[in-house]
Amino acid sequence: MDDAHDTFEFLCSGCNRWLRARVTAAGRRLRCPECLHAISVPDPDPPSTVKFNRAELNVRFSIDPPTSQPPS
């Protein structure tokens, strides 16, 4: 079995740490090794789901203030 296809990653709902689980663990309950929060392993995403690089998810966006003054 190819390990890359047998596991998937998901976020802990307690501390937002990335966790990895085997596809066969979906639906089982476990504790996050970081925060010990009890979580249920979600179903893995279908293969057609778009995947994002973690670096892309960590990009911080800033919103520039409006350049024009509101009407008085």
Briefly say what this structure is.
It contains 2 helices and 4 strands. The chain is of the alpha+beta class.
Residues in helices, as a percent range: 10-25%
Physical arrangement of strands within the biggest beta sheet? 1-2
Computed CA radius of gyration, to the nearest angstrom: 19 Å
Kindly estimate the percentage of residues that lie in beta strands according to DSSP: 15-25%
The averaged pLDDT comes out at 77
Would you report the number of β strands?
4
Distance between the termini: 68 Å
Low-confidence stretches: none
Tally of DSSP helical segments: 2
* Biggest β-sheet strands, sense, barrel: 2 strands, antiparallel
Derived structural class: alpha+beta
Query: What is the N-to-C order of secondary-structure elements (H for helix, E for strand)?
Result: HEEEEH
Which overall shape is indicated by the principal axes computed on the Cα atoms?
elongated
Fold and architecture overview:
This protein has 72 residues and is of the alpha+beta class. The chain is built from 2 helices and 4 strands. The strands form 2 sheets. Strands 1-2 form a two-stranded antiparallel sheet. 0% of the residues are buried.
